[in-house]
Write a structure and sequence with these properties.
about 240 residues; alpha/beta; Carbamate kinase; 11 strands; globular
Length: about 240
Amino acid sequence: MLKYKRVLLKLSGESLQGEKGYGIDPIRLDEYANQITSIVKKGVQVGIVIGGGNIFRGLSGAAKGFDRYQGDQMGMLATVINSLALKSALDSIGTKTRVLTAIRMEPIGELYSQPKAIEMLEKNEVVILSAGTGNPYFTTDTGASLRGIEIKADVMLKGTRVDGVYTADPEKDSTATKYDQITFDEIYNKGLKVMDLTATTMCKENNLPIIVFDMDMPGNLEKVILGEKIGTLVSN
């Protein structure tokens, strides 16, 4: 039994680096494509938003002297590159995939619209939603929250390199403990960095739950879809 019928999967750009430490690792890309295909075959409708941090991150660029407006535009283009890479990996194993862009750039991708995205999802096409919101000063987490709400997803699945939300950064604090479940208000009050505040507030106000889980463990995506208790559920 599927616990979720339509999902918004948020992937970080850094996760596509794999063991390379930069760019796109073909092995990691294929692992993700196989995991996504496995849930599509079970009848799950999948929208995907990918970050661009493995190529360029606007906020980091601004800290190094780039103009923030143009830096964020560069970051949006980085998400399109990652989206095309994932589309290629999915196409190669027979999974029908479309790339929609928040900025008009045919023939690279079709311009995003909510009705178009939902129509594609209902045809069981994987829809990769790229270029963020199309505006500077917004993160891809905020873009993922917006698209998840617009496509009426049952849940946002935030695939990361860690297996959930912790009391502190587990890579820096060995005493950090994992939450199995936490509310949006607790995220605010405890100052936990699940997503930026704009993205978290949007999910809270529109009642879109988030599951934070380790996407780098093969099979985890399917486990989440089937309702297994992995990762951390963030909800109202």
